[in-house]
Amino acid sequence: MERFRILAVGVGGQGILLFSRVLGEVALCANIPVAMSEVHGMAQRGGVVETNIVLGKIRSPLISEGEVDILVGLEPVETLRALPRTQKDTVIISSTDPVIPQIVKDGLATYPELEGPFQKLKETYSRVYLFPGEKMAQEAGTKRALNIVVLGALAGTGLLPFSKEDFLQAIKKLVKPKFLEANLKAFEAGFAITAF
Question: What is the distance of C-alpha 1 from the center of its chain?
Protein backbone atom coordinates (compact mmCIF):
# COMPACT_ATOMS: atom_id res chain seq x y z
CA MET A 1 0.00 0.00 0.00
CA GLU A 2 1.06 3.54 -0.66
CA ARG A 3 1.87 5.59 2.43
CA PHE A 4 0.04 8.82 3.29
CA ARG A 5 0.79 11.57 5.77
CA ILE A 6 -2.36 13.59 6.46
CA LEU A 7 -2.35 16.72 8.61
CA ALA A 8 -5.76 17.95 9.82
CA VAL A 9 -5.84 21.44 11.35
CA GLY A 10 -8.45 23.76 12.80
CA VAL A 11 -9.62 25.16 16.11
CA GLY A 12 -11.41 23.74 19.11
CA GLY A 13 -15.04 22.85 18.57
CA GLN A 14 -14.76 22.07 14.85
CA GLY A 15 -14.70 18.31 15.25
CA ILE A 16 -11.19 17.44 14.11
CA LEU A 17 -11.04 14.56 16.57
CA LEU A 18 -14.19 12.96 15.13
CA PHE A 19 -12.81 13.56 11.61
CA SER A 20 -9.68 11.65 12.65
CA ARG A 21 -11.61 8.87 14.39
CA VAL A 22 -13.72 8.24 11.29
CA LEU A 23 -10.67 8.19 9.03
CA GLY A 24 -8.90 5.86 11.47
CA GLU A 25 -11.93 3.55 11.56
CA VAL A 26 -12.00 3.39 7.76
CA ALA A 27 -8.31 2.41 7.71
CA LEU A 28 -8.69 -0.21 10.43
CA CYS A 29 -11.66 -1.82 8.66
CA ALA A 30 -9.54 -2.01 5.50
CA ASN A 31 -6.63 -3.60 7.44
CA ILE A 32 -4.36 -0.65 6.64
CA PRO A 33 -1.94 0.41 9.36
CA VAL A 34 -2.90 3.78 10.86
CA ALA A 35 -1.33 5.90 13.58
CA MET A 36 -2.38 9.28 14.93
CA SER A 37 -0.99 12.01 17.11
CA GLU A 38 -3.14 14.86 18.39
CA VAL A 39 -2.28 18.35 19.57
CA HIS A 40 -5.15 20.00 21.43
CA GLY A 41 -3.70 23.36 22.47
CA MET A 42 -6.42 25.37 24.17
CA ALA A 43 -9.06 23.51 22.23
CA GLN A 44 -12.00 24.37 24.46
CA ARG A 45 -11.30 28.07 24.00
CA GLY A 46 -11.07 28.06 20.22
CA GLY A 47 -7.35 27.30 20.26
CA VAL A 48 -5.39 25.34 17.70
CA VAL A 49 -6.17 21.66 17.23
CA GLU A 50 -4.29 19.37 14.87
CA THR A 51 -4.09 15.68 14.17
CA ASN A 52 -1.26 13.90 12.40
CA ILE A 53 -2.65 10.81 10.66
CA VAL A 54 -0.31 8.38 8.93
CA LEU A 55 -1.54 5.49 6.82
CA GLY A 56 0.63 2.58 5.75
CA LYS A 57 3.91 1.37 7.14
CA ILE A 58 5.24 4.58 8.67
CA ARG A 59 6.93 4.28 12.02
CA SER A 60 6.17 7.68 13.54
CA PRO A 61 2.75 9.34 13.76
CA LEU A 62 4.43 12.76 13.79
CA ILE A 63 4.64 14.62 10.49
CA SER A 64 7.66 16.86 10.11
CA GLU A 65 8.19 19.97 8.01
CA GLY A 66 7.93 19.20 4.30
CA GLU A 67 6.31 15.77 4.77
CA VAL A 68 2.56 16.40 4.50
CA ASP A 69 0.91 14.59 1.59
CA ILE A 70 -2.60 15.90 2.28
CA LEU A 71 -3.37 19.03 4.31
CA VAL A 72 -6.94 19.19 5.55
CA GLY A 73 -8.01 22.52 7.05
CA LEU A 74 -11.24 23.23 8.87
CA GLU A 75 -10.22 26.85 9.51
CA PRO A 76 -8.50 28.89 6.78
CA VAL A 77 -5.87 30.68 8.88
CA GLU A 78 -4.87 27.35 10.43
CA THR A 79 -4.55 25.93 6.91
CA LEU A 80 -2.19 28.77 5.99
CA ARG A 81 -0.25 28.39 9.25
CA ALA A 82 0.40 24.70 8.42
CA LEU A 83 1.94 25.37 4.99
CA PRO A 84 5.59 25.03 6.16
CA ARG A 85 4.84 21.34 6.76
CA THR A 86 3.77 20.81 3.15
CA GLN A 87 5.77 20.14 -0.02
CA LYS A 88 5.14 20.96 -3.68
CA ASP A 89 2.95 17.89 -4.27
CA THR A 90 0.79 18.31 -1.17
CA VAL A 91 -2.95 18.25 -1.86
CA ILE A 92 -4.78 20.97 0.06
CA ILE A 93 -8.41 20.63 1.13
CA SER A 94 -9.75 23.54 3.18
CA SER A 95 -12.87 25.26 4.33
CA THR A 96 -12.80 29.00 3.66
CA ASP A 97 -15.17 29.94 6.49
CA PRO A 98 -13.20 31.69 9.23
CA VAL A 99 -13.59 31.21 12.96
CA ILE A 100 -13.17 34.71 14.37
CA PRO A 101 -11.07 34.62 17.56
CA GLN A 102 -12.19 36.52 20.65
CA ILE A 103 -9.30 38.94 20.38
CA VAL A 104 -10.63 40.04 16.98
CA LYS A 105 -14.19 40.24 18.30
CA ASP A 106 -12.88 42.50 21.08
CA GLY A 107 -11.26 44.81 18.51
CA LEU A 108 -7.71 44.08 19.71
CA ALA A 109 -6.58 42.43 16.47
CA THR A 110 -7.76 41.97 12.91
CA TYR A 111 -8.49 38.79 11.03
CA PRO A 112 -6.17 38.51 8.01
CA GLU A 113 -7.31 39.01 4.43
CA LEU A 114 -7.57 35.59 2.77
CA GLU A 115 -8.07 36.31 -0.93
CA GLY A 116 -4.38 36.94 -1.67
CA PRO A 117 -3.07 33.91 0.24
CA PHE A 118 -5.72 31.66 -1.33
CA GLN A 119 -4.70 32.84 -4.80
CA LYS A 120 -1.06 32.07 -3.95
CA LEU A 121 -2.09 28.57 -2.81
CA LYS A 122 -3.69 27.92 -6.18
CA GLU A 123 -0.56 29.12 -7.97
CA THR A 124 1.82 27.09 -5.79
CA TYR A 125 0.10 23.72 -5.40
CA SER A 126 -1.37 21.65 -8.21
CA ARG A 127 -4.41 20.37 -6.29
CA VAL A 128 -6.19 22.85 -4.05
CA TYR A 129 -9.82 22.51 -2.99
CA LEU A 130 -11.29 25.55 -1.23
CA PHE A 131 -14.97 25.69 -0.29
CA PRO A 132 -17.35 27.26 2.30
CA GLY A 133 -17.47 24.18 4.52
CA GLU A 134 -19.41 25.63 7.42
CA LYS A 135 -22.06 27.02 5.07
CA MET A 136 -22.33 23.63 3.38
CA ALA A 137 -22.66 21.90 6.75
CA GLN A 138 -25.42 24.32 7.76
CA GLU A 139 -27.26 23.55 4.52
CA ALA A 140 -26.96 19.83 5.37
CA GLY A 141 -28.65 20.43 8.71
CA THR A 142 -26.02 21.58 11.22
CA LYS A 143 -22.88 23.68 11.04
CA ARG A 144 -21.34 21.21 13.49
CA ALA A 145 -20.97 18.79 10.56
CA LEU A 146 -18.16 20.87 9.01
CA ASN A 147 -15.74 18.07 9.88
CA ILE A 148 -17.80 15.60 7.86
CA VAL A 149 -18.07 17.99 4.89
CA VAL A 150 -14.27 18.12 4.85
CA LEU A 151 -14.06 14.34 5.27
CA GLY A 152 -16.35 13.97 2.26
CA ALA A 153 -14.10 16.27 0.25
CA LEU A 154 -11.08 14.14 1.19
CA ALA A 155 -12.94 10.96 0.21
CA GLY A 156 -14.01 12.49 -3.10
CA THR A 157 -10.44 13.12 -4.23
CA GLY A 158 -9.90 9.38 -4.68
CA LEU A 159 -6.41 9.73 -3.22
CA LEU A 160 -6.95 7.23 -0.44
CA PRO A 161 -7.46 3.49 -1.02
CA PHE A 162 -10.98 3.48 0.40
CA SER A 163 -14.39 3.45 -1.25
CA LYS A 164 -17.14 5.94 -0.59
CA GLU A 165 -19.05 3.12 1.10
CA ASP A 166 -16.13 2.53 3.50
CA PHE A 167 -16.43 6.13 4.70
CA LEU A 168 -20.22 5.95 4.99
CA GLN A 169 -20.03 2.78 7.09
CA ALA A 170 -17.55 4.41 9.48
CA ILE A 171 -19.74 7.50 9.83
CA LYS A 172 -22.76 5.31 10.58
CA LYS A 173 -20.74 3.50 13.24
CA LEU A 174 -19.31 6.57 14.99
CA VAL A 175 -21.94 9.32 14.69
CA LYS A 176 -24.85 9.34 17.14
CA PRO A 177 -28.16 8.36 15.49
CA LYS A 178 -29.82 11.73 16.08
CA PHE A 179 -27.05 13.49 14.12
CA LEU A 180 -26.59 10.83 11.45
CA GLU A 181 -28.88 12.18 8.72
CA ALA A 182 -27.29 15.64 8.74
CA ASN A 183 -23.80 14.13 8.79
CA LEU A 184 -24.53 11.86 5.83
CA LYS A 185 -25.84 14.88 3.88
CA ALA A 186 -22.73 16.82 4.88
CA PHE A 187 -20.48 14.00 3.65
CA GLU A 188 -22.29 13.90 0.30
CA ALA A 189 -21.93 17.69 -0.09
CA GLY A 190 -18.19 17.50 0.54
CA PHE A 191 -17.75 14.46 -1.68
CA ALA A 192 -19.42 16.29 -4.60
CA ILE A 193 -16.82 19.08 -4.45
CA THR A 194 -13.85 16.89 -5.24
CA ALA A 195 -15.37 13.76 -6.79
CA PHE A 196 -12.87 12.46 -9.34
Answer: 22
